[in-house]
Structure formats: structure tokens, C-alpha cells
Recover the amino acids of this structure.
């Protein structure tokens, strides 16, 4: 068993792994600390069998502590840092994604992209001294030098058979409510969401998805653009292909259903980005790309977010056609808003690495170690909860140490330790080259 300083758990490769690799690089090279990276679900067994971390960064932290974070039975005395990878919430999912247990609000440190999110979780009981307001690391990846690591347009064109001379229209869909299964709706209802509200979001997403596929099919059939349609991370490619085939049986050659590469690479390589209410539109704007929100039907209040006010809307097929072909300069109001609210503290990746190192070095305040009863069901008798925790800790260890094969939800998200180390090395090489260039320019 190896004692390590920091363990970074990630959930989705395209959303989190590059940031995790960069944090690992900075923490190790600047501060001489030991950092490991593992998948939030499918890497737990290996991590428990091989490492004992002092600080554990987790992708999210809402409720049901021991169920979502089974490693807490073994690493209760570690410090936990919530990366909070979903902060741009809307009324329909806000309650489900707010920290609300004793452990989540009193014993966890929280990463915040903006003062607005920090205020939101403070209102739920998180102490101000447990919040690190830093900005969104994902958006930082669109700035130099980070953006230069990703595969360019020519590479993607060759790899996936696209014509680099045509306009590329990237559509990262997020009609998540149309794809949720009944068990998911039941679970969300149990967490406090109203079934009527969920039904409205499901109907809107289903109808909007159908209209979007019709528009994409009609535009792609003309052959003058390349449309890259990408399912959201938790929708399997097979499920997505079946849903599209039901609406567009004869798929045009220029309409590509693709879950390869990353959203970031496609945004950087494309000419236009279209989507639903997806936050990938903000990423596109930060990258300097025209970004449009498809709204063939009125957006329900439950799905509305404040940042939508800065995005141009597309309501008709004619507007869709113009957006695909328009090359005139545009006012990037969405990027201005994002940089003002979630990119105002400098390099958020570098800042994050230094903050985590400060926690490990004792230069930043850490919360108290949680009592056992806070990790199971604190509403019952404390002694009963203590005994329940110990019973689960002892009897469940064999199950926690049993590896589980990746589910379709994470079909692209479980990577080997060798792949992670190779990615860290690529980032290190890019940064070294960049720093050498800057040094040469200043000489």
C-alpha cells in the first residue's frame, strides 16, 4: 500500500481528464508531492488496493455520501475536495445537484467557478472558508498555451473522413431529458423534483431533438457542409444512433454521429457550434466561435439559465440555414460574460494545483474529519449509525475491492494508467516548449 498526497478522481474524460493531468503535472513538479488519477467508479477497486491518499478530489458532492463515495469507508480521515464539475445549473436540476448532507456541507472543501455559485452553496450551509473561488478550468484550456495540444482540423479531417474545405458545423447535443430511463425519473423524484416538471422537460427535449435531427439531416443532405453530431457523455453511441435512425433512416453522408475525440477538439476545429441548452455553447464562445442555441419550441422555465440571455437563438429552419453559412463578424456577448464571471482569476488550472498543494502543506484551512454517523444516515440514532458504518466498512470491503467492467455510460471514460501518464507527459512537453519560447523572446 502506497501513501500518496493527492488522488484525483474523474468521471468523464473529455470534461475532466486534461485538467486532472495538468494539475498532477503542476503539483508534482512545483511542490514535489505525489499525485495519482483514477476513474470515479471503475478505478475505485484499484485505488483502494494500492493507495492511501491524504487529499481526495471528487467530481461532484451532493448527497448519499457512502453510496456515491464507497472509498470513504476506508479513507474517512482523508480531506475531500469537491471539484464541482456541474455549476451552471437550471431550475430543473438545481435541487438535485446541491450539497445537502452533513458531510457535504460541513466536511468537504468546494471548488467554485464564480461568486454566484459560491453564494448558492453557502445558502445551503457550506461554510465560506470551505469554498475556493477560482474560475472554470475547462474554459482555461481554450487559451494559450493549453489550446495548442489538441488535434487540429487537418488531423480530425483525415482521421474521420471529413472535408476540411467545407464549413464544419459541430452539434454537441444535450437533450438529456429525452434519454433518461424511468428509474432515473423515479430517483430524481425521490430527491425532490416534481414529476410534472420533469415531464415538461422530457416533452420539450424529445420534440426539440426530433426537430434538430430533421434540420441537420436536411442541411447535410445538400453536401456543402460537414455536420458533426455528438451525443452527451452519458448517452451511449449505440443508443444515440438508434434514436437518430428512428428519425432519419437514410443518414446523409455529411452528417456524422461521432463520440470520438473531445468536445474541445471539435469546437476548436469547427466553424460554427450549435446546441440546445448545453453549456458547450459557452466553451465555443470562449474559443471565439459563433455559437447558437436551437429553440424550435419555447424553452420551459425549468430549463432556463441566466447565461441563455447572451446566446443568439435559432427558432426556424431558415435561421438554422443562415447560422450554418454565415461568415460575417459577430458580437461575442457570451464570451464576454463567461470571462467576466468565470475567468477573472487568471489561470484557473495553475491556481487549482497550487491551492491543492497548499492544503497538503498545511497552508490552507481544512475541515474537520467527519464522524462515522454523518456518512450513512445521520437522521437516526448516532450509535446506530456508527454501528451501521462499521458493519458496512468491514463486510463491504471485499466488494469495494472487486473491479467492475465499464458500463455503456462510461464507454469512453475508463483509460489505463499508462494512457494517463502519456497524457501528462504530452502536457509537460507542451508547457516546456511554450516556456522555452517565452524565454527566448525575452532574451
Amino acid at each position: 500500500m502506497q501513501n500518496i498526497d493527492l488522488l484525483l478522481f474523474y468521471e468523464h474524460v473529455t470534461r475532466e481528464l486534461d485538467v486532472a493531468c495538468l494539475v498532477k503535472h503542476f503539483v508534482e513538479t512545483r511542490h514535489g508531492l505525489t499525485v495519482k488519477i483514477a476513474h470515479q467508479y471503475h478505478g475505485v477497486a484499484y485505488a483502494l488496493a494500492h493507495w492511501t491518499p491524504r487529499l481526495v478530489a471528487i467530481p461532484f458532492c451532493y448527497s448519499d455520501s457512502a453510496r456515491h463515495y464507497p472509498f470513504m469507508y476506508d479513507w474517512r480521515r482523508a480531506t475531500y475536495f469537491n471539484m464541482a464539475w456541474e455549476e451552471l445549473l437550471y431550475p430543473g436540476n438545481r435541487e438535485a445537484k446541491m450539497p445537502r448532507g452533513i458531510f457535504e456541507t460541513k466536511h468537504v472543501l468546494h471548488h467554485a467557478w464564480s461568486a454566484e455559485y459560491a453564494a448558492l452553496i453557502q445558502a445551503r450551509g457550506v461554510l465560506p472558508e470551505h469554498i475556493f473561488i477560482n474560475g472554470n478550468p475547462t474554459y482555461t484550456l481554450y487559451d494559450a498555451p493549453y489550446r495548442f495540444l489538441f488535434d487540429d482540423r487537418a488531423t480530425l479531417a483525415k482521421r474521420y473522413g471529413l472535408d476540411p474545405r467545407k464549413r464544419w458545423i459541430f452539434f454537441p447535443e444535450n437533450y438529456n431529458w429525452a434519454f433518461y430511463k424511468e428509474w432515473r425519473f423515479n430517483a430524481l423524484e425521490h430527491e425532490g423534483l416534481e414529476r410534472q416538471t420533469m415531464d415538461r422537460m422530457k416533452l420539450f427535449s424529445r420534440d426539440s431533438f426530433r426537430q434538430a435531427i430533421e434540420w441537420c439531416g436536411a442541411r447535410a443532405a445538400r453536401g456543402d457542409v460537414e455536420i458533426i453530431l455528438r451525443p452527451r457523455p452519458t448517452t451511449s453511441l449505440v443508443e444515440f444512433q438508434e434514436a437518430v435512425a428512428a428519425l432519419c433512416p437514410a443518414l446523409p453522408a455529411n452528417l456524422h454521429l461521432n463520440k470520438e475525440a473531445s468536445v474541445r477538439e471539435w469546437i476548436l476545429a469547427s466553424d460554427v457550434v450549435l446546441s440546445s441548452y448545453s453549456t458547450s455553447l459557452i466553451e465555443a464562445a470562449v474559443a471565439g466561435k459563433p455559437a447558437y442555441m436551437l429553440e424550435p419550441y419555447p424553452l420551459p422555465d425549468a430549463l432556463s439559465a441566466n447565461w441563455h440571455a447572451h446566446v443568439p437563438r435559432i427558432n426556424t429552419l431558415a435561421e438554422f440555414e443562415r447560422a450554418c453559412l454565415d461568415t460575417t463578424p459577430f458580437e461575442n456577448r457570451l464570451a464576454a460574460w463567461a470571462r467576466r464571471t468565470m475567468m477573472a482569476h487568471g489561470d484557473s488550472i495553475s491556481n487549482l494545483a497550487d491551492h491543492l498543494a497548499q492544503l497538503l502543506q498545511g497552508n490552507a484551512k481544512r475541515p474537520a474529519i467527519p464522524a462515522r454517523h454523518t456518512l450513512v444516515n445521520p437522521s437516526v440514532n448516532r450509535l446506530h449509525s456508527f454501528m451501521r458504518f462499521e458493519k458496512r466498512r468491514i463486510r463491504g470491503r471485499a466488494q469495494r475491492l472487486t473491479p467492475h467492467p465499464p458500463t455503456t455510460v462510461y464507454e469512453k471514460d475508463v483509460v489505463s494508467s499508462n494512457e494517463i501518464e502519456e497524457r501528462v507527459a504530452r502536457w509537460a512537453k507542451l508547457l516546456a516548449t511554450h516556456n522555452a519560447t517565452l524565454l527566448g523572446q525575452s532574451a
User: Anything to note?
Assistant: DSSP finds 20 helices and twelve strands in the chain. The chain has a mean pLDDT of 91. The radius of gyration is 22 Å.
